[in-house]
Amino acid sequence: MTKQEDILIIGGGVIGVCTAYYLAAQGQSVTLVEKDDICAGSSYGNVGWIANGHAIPLAAPGVLTQGLKWLLDAGSPFYIKPRLDLDLVRWLWQFQTACNKKQMYQAIPVLLALGQSSLALFEELIASEGLEFGYERNGLLHLFNSRHSFEKGVKEAVLLREFGVTSVELDRAGVLQMEPNILPAVTNGIFYDDYAQIIPDRFVKEVARVAERRGARLQTNTEVLDFETSGPRISAVVTTRGTFKPEQVVLAAGAWSSILARDLKFRLPVQPAKGYSITVKRPSTSPNLPLSLTEYKVAVTPMGDMLRFSSTLELAGYDFSINQRRLAATRQGIRAYLPGMNDLELIEIWRGYRPASPDGLPIIGRSNIFENLILATGHGMLGITHGPVTGQLISQIIANEPPAVDLTLLKADRF
Fold it and tell me: What is the C-alpha to C-alpha distance for residues 32 and 16, in angstroms, rounded to an integer?
């Protein structure tokens, strides 16, 4: 069966769903296809931060050097699994090229513009659509248990202040005033007030619901098998539920975007950066604020009657196995900062692939190879944060409207 479509979105995570919503709100005819269910990937189990103050890209000076030191430690915060993979080698080469001060200073204002625009859109969605997804704007408290880490955190805070990100440095007494549920090992903190939090899967499913109400068609369990092309255009998308002939195609398949790009005979430098989360029933000693346990790179978010812990990056290809050493390191980090974390009632252990670009910036814009292909991927750990603004930007690109954020540094042809 062949279906004629105006706009076809590939991917049912936060980026694809937000894109469907903003296109439908414009009155566009849009269909979204997803190989699993809506919000089945990394949009589901993440820590739920709207981290619009998180603006230092992963590709920052010194990061790769630290990553190589951690290379042989499978429990480290940034683990690169040794393997023969030419795509990984190319990605690491581009990553190390981006790990310089000049590119970091170029990236920070772009990430801030995306985050701040998105934060406003989250609040607009609540007001205009009446959505309920556990939104709270309580800020983020970074905790430190060593002087060296605190001094490094202060340097980052000072750098971000140059770009207008406000923060407050705290001694132990100041930390206790904000968050009393910490252990004596915690010596200092830095509080960033311009963060918010949500329950991520609830948000994505709520946006999907209103997108459908506005006319978008969301087709799950529909896997893309192949593409047909005619010159500089994609003429058909072949799926397990029939063939689509769209006027425009939006590739928003997260970490799977690079695999689909191969079918189109071009290389998209997105690596699957596996992340983990542990969700438990919220204990009586639960913190009240979202926390960053700095030395262990563990994020903590209270979510209603749940408490979620999330760890950072594992570049291990499309290996979906659970690395028990990483879970053990996460639990060790939790117990180093927070009381009463030994006998928690487990709800879920989750892992998923974050789509990581080499320079830490998302890839948003028209392809330079196919004139009717728009790319929306590579958001790394900021997919939830950048979901609404990416959806808005894609709708503006398709409508030939001026984009809300300058897309110059986000184009795919930068690689």
Answer: 7
Delineate the domains of the chain, giving CATH numbers in brackets: 2-414 (3.50.50.60)
Tens-digit pLDDT profile for residues 199-247: 999 999 999 999 999 999 999 999 999 999 999 999 999 999 999 999 9
Whole-Å CA distances, 49 to 134, 181, 274, 370, 382: 11, 20, 17, 34, 8
- Nearest 5°: the CA angle 372, 377, 378 is 140
Q: Hey, what are 165's tokens?
A: 């990100």
pTM for the whole thing? 0.96
Within 8 A by CB and 6+ apart from 19, the residues are 9, 32, 250, 252, 376, 390, 391, 394, 395
pLDDT at 316: 87
Percentage of the chain beyond pLDDT 90 is 86
Phi, psi dihedrals of residue 90, rounded to the nearest 5°: -60, -45
Contacts of 396 (CB under 8 A, 6+ apart): 402, 403, 404
Average of per-residue pLDDT across 308-328 = 89
pLDDT-derived band at 66 (thresholds 50, 70, 90) equals low
Rg (CA), the chain: 21
pLDDT at 3: 67
- Return the structure tokens found at 183: 């252990």
**Which residue from 298, 303, 299 is spatially nearest to 280, judged by alpha carbons?**
303
Main-chain phi, psi angles of 197, to 5 degrees: -145, 155
Residue 58 pLDDT > 90? no
Q: Give CA–CA dist 287/179, Å, rounded.
A: 7
Distance CA 54, CA 195 (A): 9
The closest alpha carbon to 10, from 232, 202, 240, belongs to 240
pLDDT for position 81: 79
